[in-house]
């Protein structure tokens, strides 16, 4: 499933208070831990991220201490004692078998040694796949059978939604939208390679005027800079959002992506959106108008601005017709 669907599924588990243990599988850099943390924030839950590969069995079970001429286990301070939240066992299959064996008791019985997990806590885990050049161990069948297994893959639509919501560079979003094969592409010959996580790092570097190759690799970075060189031919989008509909919509696919992503990034006011839609409906093929709406509407919904924008669009007959057709297509 794609990241947005995974988040919906996990949120439904929280809403229904289903305490089954969850195992999330996916390639490195897709954002598995970020999705889980987002679910915690959305549901106002605590989030504890344990990297089992960095722990020894005694770190999880606790240390033996004498008590009444017997040894008892003193639990570690990082395990929750009360409240509610998600105990997230990240990179679980990078942990050696002995560590996975100790974790199995926590996953199955919700306890380990003398420690018992409070009732309000969920136990979820995540791991990478063998085919992704990850240094993973086989998960024992008894442990695997304790989980419900969810598989997540990269999604260009979800990446664009996330990038717009977090104000990534328009140019970077447009490039990844144009070269979708570079959203996630493991390169075994380089340490740096493109993934949703590394594009987020690249955005930070680009904003600071630094080379993005250390984040995404030399090849993708070179293609991005070549893409940047043709962006001078992009229409004057600042004029578009001011209401100038005489400007031609470009014919080159890369410039079309840059135009759409640039307009989404400039959608700060209702007037900006109305003017952009008027230009696109008049000048652009229908599929590019739909792409603008597909990227824009989730962004506006997240900012709580969708209702007034929708009302303003419905006041104009040509835009009303588009919205009704777009709604019909989305419901099919």
Polypeptide structure, described:
- The chain has 332 residues and is of the alpha/beta class.
- It folds into 2 domains: 3-151, P-loop containing nucleotide triphosphate hydrolases (Rossmann fold); 156-331, no CATH class.
- 50% of the residues lie in helices and 14% in strands.
- It has helices at residues 3-15, 32-42, 57-61, 97-109, 141-144, 156-165, 170-178, 196-207, 213-216, 218-230, 237-240, 253-265, 270-283, 286-302, 306-314, 317-331; strands at 21-25, 46-51, 63-67, 70-74, 84-90, 111-112, 115-116, 120-127, 147-151.
- The strands form 3 sheets. A 5-stranded parallel beta sheet has the order 2-5-8-1-9, sandwiched between helices. Strands 3-4 form a two-stranded antiparallel sheet.
- Strand 6 and strand 7 form a beta hairpin.
- Helix 6 runs antiparallel to helix 7.
- The chain is elongated.
- It starts with a helix and ends with a helix.
Order of helices and strands: HEHEHEEEHEEEHEHHHHHHHHHHH
Oligomer: single chain
Give the neighbour order of strands across the main sheet: 2-5-8-1-9
Major sheet description: 5 strands, parallel
Poorly predicted parts: none
The total of helices stands at 16
Count of domains: 2
Helix/strand-derived class? alpha/beta
Radius of gyration: 24 Å
Gross geometry: elongated
Report the portion of residues in β strands: 5-15%
Number of strands: 9
How far is the first residue's CA from the last residue's CA? 19 Å
- On the 0 to 100 scale, the average pLDDT is 88
Helix content: 40-55%
């Amino acid at each position: 499933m794609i990241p947005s669907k995974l988040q919906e599924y996990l949120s439904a588990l929280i809403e229904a208070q289903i305490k089954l243990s969850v195992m999330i599988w996916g390639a490195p850099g897709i954002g598995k831990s970020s999705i889980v943390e987002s679910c915690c924030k959305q549901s106002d839950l605590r989030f504890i991220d344990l990297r089992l590969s960095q722990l020894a069995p005694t770190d999880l079970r606790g240390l033996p201490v004498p008590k009444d001429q017997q040894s008892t286990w003193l639990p570690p301070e990082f395990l929750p004692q009360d409240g509610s939240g998600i105990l997230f066992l990240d990179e679980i299959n990078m942990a050696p078998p002995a560590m996975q064996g100790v974790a199995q008791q926590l996953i199955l019985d919700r306890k380990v040694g003398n420690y018992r997990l409070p009732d309000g806590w969920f136990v979820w885990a995540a791991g990478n796949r063998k085919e992704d050049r990850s240094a993973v161990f086989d998960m024992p069948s008894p442990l695997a059978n304790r989980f419900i297994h969810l598989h997540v893959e990269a999604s260009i639509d979800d990446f664009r939604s996330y990038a717009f919501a977090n104000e990534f560079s328009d140019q970077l979003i447009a490039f990844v939208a144009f070269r979708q094969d570079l959203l996630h592409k493991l390169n075994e010959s380089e340490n740096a390679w493109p993934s949703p996580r590394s594009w987020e790092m690249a955005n930070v570097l680009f904003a600071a005027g630094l080379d993005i190759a250390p984040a995404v690799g030399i090849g993708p970075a070179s293609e991005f800079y070549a893409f940047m060189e043709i962006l001078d031919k992009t229409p004057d989008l600042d004029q578009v959002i001011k209401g100038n509909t005489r400007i031609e919509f470009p014919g080159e696919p890369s410039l079309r992506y840059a135009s759409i992503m640039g307009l989404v990034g400039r959608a700060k006011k209702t007037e900006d959106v109305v003017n952009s839609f008027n230009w696109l409906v008049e000048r652009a093929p229908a599929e590019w108008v739909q792409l603008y709406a597909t990227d824009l509407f989730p962004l506006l919904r997240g900012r709580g601005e969708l209702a007034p924008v929708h009302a303003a669009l419905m006041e104009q007959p040509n835009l009303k017709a588009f919205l009704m057709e777009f709604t019909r297509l989305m419901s099919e």
